[in-house]
Design a protein that fits this description.
The chain is an alpha+beta fold. The chain is about 25% helix and about 30% strand. Strands 1-3-4-5-2 form a 5-stranded antiparallel sheet, covered by helices on one side.
């Protein structure tokens, strides 16, 4: 039997609510591939040269950590109609290293219904990406659009993956 997907609407989301992801291991190959395409700096690409850098060894790009965090966020925070960002802050207090198994802990810090658009609101999260030792490698505080149950089907693409999740959750 297929497990029913959960889809949280604005009315279901509360300050203090938490979400946890599974983990993802960053390999040397993955780090170098990402860096080669998007952040080609020596401390992300060359183990020998990286020893002389600020990092003292090979480190994943902060943007690689951010992209992986986004994947973990999408997998662990089941907001109805997807995660549409509306800004935020990001920091990398520690480098992500080859072999690190990173996971995400997210907490709702604010829920603000829109005054002008009753079909939606804004949710602020504090997302902490940690390695296998529980050390913070990224802190991300995004603002995410959240949809209310009333009027949530307006302007919604019925064929989208989020629509499929919505249909499954409403079929009971």
């Amino acid at each position: 039997m297929m497990e029913k997907a959960i889809a949280l609407y604005l009315e279901d989301i509360e300050v203090g609510q938490t979400f946890e992801s599974s983990s993802h291991v960053l390999t040397i190959e993955e780090i170098k591939e990402f860096a080669g395409r998007y952040d080609p700096q020596f401390f992300h690409l060359d183990e020998e040269l990286a020893v002389e850098s600020l990092f003292g060894g090979l480190a994943a790009s902060g943007w690689h950590t951010a992209a992986t965090t986004m994947r973990l966020l999408v997998q662990s925070v089941p907001f109805a109609r997807g995660l549409v960002g509306a800004g935020g802050e990001i920091s990398w207090p520690r480098a992500t290293r080859p072999g690190d198994a990173i996971r995400l802990r997210s907490e709702v810090t604010a829920v603000t219904p829109s005054r002008s658009r009753p079909e939606r609101g804004m949710v602020t999260l504090r997302c902490e990406t940690v390695n296998q030792d529980g050390e913070l490698v990224q802190v991300f505080s995004p603002k995410i659009v959240a949809w209310s149950k009333e009027g949530s089907d307006a302007n919604f693409a019925v064929g989208s993956p989020s629509a499929a999740v919505l249909r499954r959750s409403n079929e009971g």
